[in-house]
């Protein structure tokens, strides 16, 4: 497994229980570690902090003979029998590989970013937590049309919405401005100059004036960590996610992908489900291959 977030850890347990030799190479960069509390995870009625859930998933792997390597894979190569993974100071070979390298959010420029995330003033995933901002003052910071879609999605939860454009934004097409206006969503005048916390609110300064929000969603996009897979010919869609079939297999034989690197619906439960699908398919494929 390349990556030790929910997808990589769940898949490692499944494959270990199917009596395969498993290793997880993890650079400790899972997005789950940055989530203050997830409230839509099954079986957690009061929610669960992301770091605590990640620790629990890691603890589960210790019940099985799973090797853990604390490193960032720098290169992935084809071998006669499968793949070679290389990192600073080491390497290993594997018959099959699961890419679970995830994605990372593009953060807005603001002071005390980590604290704003912890308090819920700054948010990234309306699918995950828009329930918590029902009928509150919500801002969406955007660099272009992507923010329009996020704002329209959030309109289901609150009517108090403002879209803020970054200094490098290219503007919004007239059709999208019309869609926002029809939904009653305001587009702030002027470009964003600064973002700061103030007495439990997040203050966006734009065009020489300030707007206070109870929460600010960043719609600046994601960096999809797919380069290891694409270096061997795996394909991506227009958004940069790895293309997989219904078994989570990429276009590279023996390479599978699960989690945020392969899905546009960035949810913990989706990552775990994809990991289960991938590990079952990997097991069947391995059982048909002669061992070297």
Question: What would you say this structure looks like, in words?
Answer:
This protein has 292 residues and is of the alpha/beta class. It has two domains: 6-104 and 222-288, 3-Layer(bba) Sandwich (FAD/NAD(P)-binding domain), CATH 3.50.50; 107-219, FAD/NAD(P)-binding domain, CATH 3.50.50. 27% of the residues lie in helices and 25% in strands. The protein has helices at residues 6-17, 50-61, 113-119, 126-129, 146-154, 174-182, 227-230, 268-288; strands at 22-26, 66-70, 75-78, 83-87, 90-94, 97-99, 103-105, 122-123, 138-142, 161-165, 186-187, 192-198, 201-206, 209-213, 215-219, 222-224, 255-257. The protein has a five-stranded parallel β-sheet. It has a three-stranded antiparallel β-sheet with strand order 3-4-5, with no helix packed on it. The chain is elongated and about 65 Å long. The model has no long low-confidence stretch (mean pLDDT 95).
Main beta sheet strand tally, sense and closure: 5 strands, parallel
Q: Distance between termini? A: 20 Å
- Widest β-sheet, arrangement of strands: 8-15-9-10-11
State the helical fraction: 25-40%
Content of β-strand: 25-35%
Features:
alpha/beta; FAD/NAD(P)-binding domain; five-stranded parallel β-sheet; 8 helices; about 290 residues; 2 domains
In short:
The chain is an alpha/beta fold and 292 residues long. It has helices at residues 6-17, 50-61, 113-119, 126-129, 146-154, 174-182, 227-230, 268-288, and strands spanning 22-26, 66-70, 75-78, 83-87, 90-94, 97-99, 103-105, 122-123, 138-142, 161-165, 186-187, 192-198, 201-206, 209-213, 215-219, 222-224, 255-257.
């Amino acid at each position: 497994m390349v990556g030790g977030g929910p997808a990589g850890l769940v898949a490692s347990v499944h494959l270990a229980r199917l009596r395969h030799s498993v290793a997880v190479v993890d650079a400790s960069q899972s997005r789950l570690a940055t989530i203050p509390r997830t409230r839509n995870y099954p079986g957690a009625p009061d929610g669960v902090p992301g770091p605590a859930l990640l620790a629990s998933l890691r603890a589960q792997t210790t019940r099985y003979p799973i090797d853990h390597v604390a490193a960032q894979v720098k290169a992935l190569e084809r071998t006669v029998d499968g793949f070679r993974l290389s990192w600073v100071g080491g390497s290993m070979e594997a018959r099959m590989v699961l890419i679970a390298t995830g994605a990372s959010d593009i953060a807005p420029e603001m002071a005390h970013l980590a604290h704003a995330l912890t308090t819920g003033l700054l948010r990234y995933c309306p699918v995950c937590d828009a329930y918590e901002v029902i009928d509150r003052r919500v801002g969406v910071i955007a660099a272009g049309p992507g923010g329009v879609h996020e704002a329209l999605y959030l309109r289901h939860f609150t009517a108090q919405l403002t879209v803020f454009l970054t200094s490098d934004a290219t503007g919004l097409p007239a059709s999208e401005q019309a869609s926002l206006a029809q939904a009653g969503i305001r587009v702030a005048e002027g470009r964003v100059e600064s973002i700061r916390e103030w007495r439990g609110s997040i203050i966006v300064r734009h065009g020489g004036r300030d707007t206070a929000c109870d929460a600010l969603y960043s719609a600046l996009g994601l960096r999809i960590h797919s380069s290891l897979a694409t270096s061997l010919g795996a394909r991506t869609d227009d958004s940069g996610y790895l293309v997989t079939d219904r078994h989570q297999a990429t276009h590279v034989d023996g390479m599978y992908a699960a989690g945020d690197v392969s899905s546009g619906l960035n949810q913990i439960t989706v990552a775990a489900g994809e990991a289960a699908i991938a590990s079952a398919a990997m097991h069947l494929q391995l059982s048909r291959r002669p061992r070297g």
